[in-house]
Amino acid sequence: MADVHRLPTPVSENWDWQRLGACRGANSAVFFHPDSERGSARLAREATAKRICNSCPVRAECLRHAIKVQEPYGIWGGMGENERRAVISATRRRLKSHAS
């Protein structure tokens, strides 16, 4: 589950970007894997989700949100779970090295 402390306040301007998402109305199963999904089935589903993201007018906002709140599951802004974890880890390392 995402850390809800990182979520923006419940003001509509903070969430309006979601109304414009290319994924709006799409089956959420395309963006979130079932527990037993592995291998080529998972890769194919993620590729489908990322194609939707590639055409999305709010892709950057979506990805920014997912990284900020550290969404642990699904495809957000064209990035999968492991891709986002890598970005978050790299950001932490960079911030840590600048603080030292």
Automatic annotation (TrEMBL):
4Fe-4S Wbl-type domain ranges (all copies): 22-86
Gene Ontology molecular function: any one: dinitrosyl-iron complex binding
Cofactor notes: Binds 1 [4Fe-4S] cluster per subunit. Following nitrosylation of the [4Fe-4S] cluster binds 1 [4Fe-8(NO)] cluster per subunit.
Database matches in InterPro entries: 4FE4S_WBL, Whib
PROSITE patterns xrefs: 4FE4S_WBL
Annotated binding of [4Fe-4S] cluster, by residue: 23, 53, 56, 62
One term under GO cellular component: cytoplasm
Protein's cellular compartments: Cytoplasm
Record bears the keyword Methyltransferase: no
Major location category of this protein: cytoplasm
Entry comment on modification after translation: Upon Fe-S cluster removal intramolecular disulfide bonds are formed.
Biological processes, Gene Ontology terms: cell redox homeostasis; negative regulation of DNA-templated transcription
Family affiliation: Belongs to the WhiB family.
Role: Acts as a transcriptional regulator. Probably redox-responsive. The apo- but not holo-form probably binds DNA.
Protein name (Swiss-Prot/TrEMBL): Transcriptional regulator WhiB
